[in-house]
Amino acid sequence: MSTIRSSIDIALDALEAGVTNAHPRSVIGSSVMIDDGMLRVGDEVVDLAAHNRVLVFGGGNAVGRVAAALYECLGDRIDDGIIVTDDPASAGPIEMRERTHPLPSQPNVAGTRKLLEYACATDEDTLALVPVTGGGSALLTAPSGEIELDDMVALTESLLRSGAPISTINTVRRAVSDVEGGKLAEKLAPATTVGLVFSDVTSDDPAVVASGPLSPTPTTTADALNVLEEYNGSVESLDSVGIGR
């Protein structure tokens, strides 16, 4: 006698399969491999022998698990690194900085500044593997210019309450950050940098995930000002968050 499965059972099985396949260990296991001294990350191929150091940098909710999976794959080929996350995991020599989410904090700033310090010390002989996941916009906090952390916290909290879509919120975040909007990639140059971006947005746009620390910004300061004018009525003046026309 055949058994007819309920729609609830089918939905639960589908959910479990989705979570399993999206887990960093599954993704890294199927996308990252070493073949005859060549590191393959998706469609990218890098000669490990051409680099003196392999470092791992990253930020986001899931980057601790991604870093752990990378260490399982590469082992002692990884020399060092630093991860800023709210969910740390053991990853050999890669340092985990456990920080706060969804609002930025002083520990977030300290962890991010340390990451940027490491990034600026790379050279053309360095291979940088950079996992980026959702949550990176808050965890990777590096206020630009003279912007104060308190202003960043108030701005983030207000925008999260405003109902603005995440792509719109991240337009402002990129404008007030020293790490987002491609600025991490700039600091890593001239190292060979390979990004591992785990999308949590429907568009899968890498410039939106964690506000795009490795992606050229597609928006301008004027765009950020327009967002503030439309959504952020609680901020008394645009100057208070360090964005000027």
UniProtKB/TrEMBL annotation:
Residues 12-234 form the MOFRL-associated domain. It holds the Pfam family DUF4147. InterPro entries: GK_N_sf (IPR038614), MOFRL_assoc_dom (IPR025286), MOFRL_protein (IPR039760). This is Glycerate-2-kinase family protein. It comes from Halorubrum laminariae.
